[in-house]
Structure formats: C-alpha cells, structure tokens
Write the structure tokens for this entry.
Amino acid sequence: SVSVHDRAMSAVSALPLATAVALTLTASRSAGVPLAGLAGPGLRDATRLASTPVDLAVPLLRDAAALREDIAGLREALAAIERAIGDDASLRALLDRAREARSELEG
C-alpha cells in the first residue's frame, strides 16, 4: 500500500537525513570549538547525509508524510537514553536492543 511505502521511505531516507542534520547542528553548536581536527569516523559517518545537496534534501524532507511520526519516535528513543544515563543496566539493555535491531538491517 501507499502508506506502507511512505513509512518505509521515511525510515530509510528522510529520517536518516533529518537525524544527520540534527546531529551535525547539535555537535557543532555544543562543541564550542571547530570539530575538524576532533571528529572521528563515528561523527563523520553519522553526519555524512547532512552534506546532501539541498535540492535533493528538501523534497525528501518535505514529502515524507511519515517523517513527523519517525521524529517523534527518535525523540522517544533519545529520551530513553537520557533517562538511562547513570544506570548501566538500562544503558546495556538499550544498547543490546539497538545492536539486535542493527543486525537485522544487515539481513
């Protein structure tokens, strides 16, 4: 169905782009120093999509009807991480769930 396709496209295209943009803006603002010499492969890989040409990015974000729901889900996941800070058991549980979900992406 169209709605299933839209949800899938949001999850695989629009959400990663929106997340990369948000991470890039947040990291550059919170660091307080230029990140060029500090950023390792993790930050560079996680923010790569933020360099998507604007003419390609705008339609991905504008036309993603499911993106608002995905962003709400991302907020919930970030809130769970925030609540787990200082609680190793909770952090481990979140990291284990994420690792399992990530392994499913590989097929």
Remarks:
- The helical segments are 2-31, 41-47, 54-62, 67-84, 88-105.
- The chain has five helices and no strands.
- The two ends are 23 Å apart (CA to CA).
